[in-house]
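Hi support team,

I've been running sequence recovery on a batch of backbones for a student project. Most finish fine, but this one hangs at about 90% for roughly twenty minutes before it completes. I'm not sure whether the input is malformed or the queue is just slow. I've pasted the structure tokens below so you can try to reproduce it. Let me know if you need the job ID as well.

Thanks,
M.K.
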């Protein structure tokens, strides 16, 4: 079995689960830097899968291990263009 990260554009193998989680956190930080004030939509596509090595489609053939989830919801400031503020964190999928 192998670990893959899906960044919304492409799915790439990673050396380990910890390497995939590090990259996911780096991509979340990159997305946060692009906030204006809304998060870029691609952040919701971040995911980590476990699938057979060299399978054609790890997303389809694999098991979802982590995905980017909203966390730390808080009300937006009055006059803001947003309904609320949140952070994104790697999270496990709901059963």
């Amino acid at each position: 079995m192998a670990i893959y990260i899906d960044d919304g554009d492409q799915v790439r193998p990673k050396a380990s689960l910890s390497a995939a989680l590090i990259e996911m956190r780096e991509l979340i930080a990159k997305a946060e830097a692009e906030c204006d004030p809304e998060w870029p939509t691609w952040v919701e596509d971040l995911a980590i899968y476990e699938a057979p090595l060299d399978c054609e489609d790890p997303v389809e053939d694999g098991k979802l291990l982590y995905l980017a989830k909203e966390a730390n919801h808080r009300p937006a400031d009055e006059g803001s263009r947003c309904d609320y503020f949140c952070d994104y964190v790697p999270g496990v999928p709901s059963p």
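--
Follow-up from support: It reproduced on our side and the slowdown came from queue contention, not your input. Residues 43 and 74 are 19 Å apart (CA to CA). No action needed from you.
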